[in-house]
Amino acid sequence: MRLHLIFIGNKFIYNVSLQEYILRKIRQKSDFIDAITYFKESDNSLFLYLEQELNSSDKIIIITTKQNFSTIGKLISTVTSDNQVLKDNMLIPSNCSVFEEASYLLEYKDSITNVLHIDEMQKMPEILLHFEESKAVVHVFEQSRDSTYAMLNPIAQTFDVNIDVITLIDGWVRVDIVSKKYGNISKFINSAKQLLPRNLIAASNIVLYIIETLSRNQKRLTFAESCSGGLLSYYFTKENGASKILDGALITYSNEIKENWLAVEHTSLQEFGAVSEDVVKEMSEGALNVSNADYALSISGIAGDSGGTEFKPVGTVFVGASSKTHQAQMHLKLDGDRNYVQHQSVLFAIKMLILIDKEMFF
After folding, report:
1. Is 359 left (phi over 0), alpha (psi -120 to 50) or beta?
2. pLDDT at residue 133 above 70?
3. How confident is the model at residue 270 (pLDDT cuts 50, 70, 90)?
4. Phi/psi class of residue 81: alpha, beta or left (left: φ > 0; alpha: ψ in -120 to 50)?
5. Diameter of the chain by CA atoms?
């Protein structure tokens, strides 16, 4: 069954942090949300839309506000020829099979609908939908989308699963796996891992996987960021357990701070510029020295939308990765707006960390 998420309320459109919190909580239950639809409270097409969805064979999560909770229940009751009753101080359709505070579950024909209400600065109510273990994710590095599909699709056919291969950045693809009726996802992943032992990681959340791997091996990580402005640090600190592997990081935007905090050579900055292979190498080395971490990542570039030159246009980014035994730098020419360039830079840095110690991460 497909999972369809429906937001009803202006705040879920404009309060981005609330919206992202709800999405995170749902994705903890299921990595796959097949469709997301937004409605304002005043949208007159909502009733017909709910009627169509409730007569589908989807799993549906409806998120609304406390103020509109009973109104949505009334619309659902009209569609399902039901009436609302008071249960635990909530007006909900009488045919609800399961309910808890601010959340109820309704089965109607072939659809299953979970309606929840939440407002700003509140805890997410319990999600009552049940999700079968019929989907999984793996990540493949140093392979293209086409080569990954060519290698894994025959295995997918053998174990009766479907795969969807998506490029995140060059040399990093995500593979979404969905089991058919008699499919065996675990055997597919085991066979794929045997085929790509130094390229495939079976984890939906790569950053969390890195945190767990470094923690298990008692290793620590640090960052030196310029154009990414702390985004790389945020990718890690937004995950549970980051404190186990991260003591701190440095955002060194100006040349003076690069020199004073990271001991980047003044001559390197003058001769090569802050956006250069030499400087990101010295940035990661400096981050290792001031933190005593085992691994350091550094990013320096021109994210835009202005500031580029003929020789270093907007989208020019250098990424460095250092361990106590290895070093690597990468010169990137990225397209997109400022935010997309920043996010791409962070993904390349994460990829470089994994590849600088394949023995541990694979």
Report:
1. alpha
2. no
3. very high
4. left
5. 77
Tell whether omega for the bond before 305 is within 30 degrees of 0, i.e. cis. yes
Type of residue at 208: L
Query: Residue 65 and residue 22: Cα distance in Å, rounded?
Result: 12
- According to the model, what pLDDT value does residue 37 have? 98
CA distances from 36 to 61, 73, 83, 98 (A): 10, 20, 27, 24
The pLDDT tens digits for 304-324 are 999 999 999 999 999 999 999
Q: What does the pLDDT look like over 167-209, one tens digit per residue?
A: 999 999 999 999 988 889 999 999 999 999 999 999 999 999 9
Per-residue DSSP letters for 246-304? EEEEEE--SHHHHHHHH---HHHHHHH-SSSHHHHHHHHHHHHHHH--SEEEEEEE--S
> What is the Cα–Cα distance from 56 to 59, expressed in whole angstroms?
9
Cα 9 to Cα 151: distance, rounded to the nearest angstrom: 45
Contact 34, 3 (CB under 8 A): yes
Question: Which amino acid, residue 283?
Answer: M
Neighbours of 327 (CB within 10 A): 14
Give the torsion sign (CA, 145, 151, 152, 158).
positive
Q: What is the pLDDT of residue 131?
A: 83
Domains of the chain: 3-117 (3.40.980.10), 135-204 (3.30.70.260), 207-361 (3.90.950.20)
Q: Are 73 and 85 in contact (CB under 8 A)?
A: no
- Number of helices and strands in the chain (H, E): 13, 17
Q: Are the CB atoms for 361 and 354 separated by under 8 Å? A: yes
Cα 50–51–55 angle (5° rounding)?
110
Angle at 133 between CA 129 and CA 137, to 5 degrees: 115
Run of H or E residues at 171: none
Spatial CB neighbours of 235, under 8 Å, sequence gap ≥ 6: 207, 346, 350
Helices within the chain (DSSP H only): 11-14, 16-29, 46-54, 66-79, 145-158, 185-195, 206-216, 231-237, 255-262, 266-272, 277-291, 338-356, 358-361
Q: Looking at residue 132, what is its pLDDT? A: 73
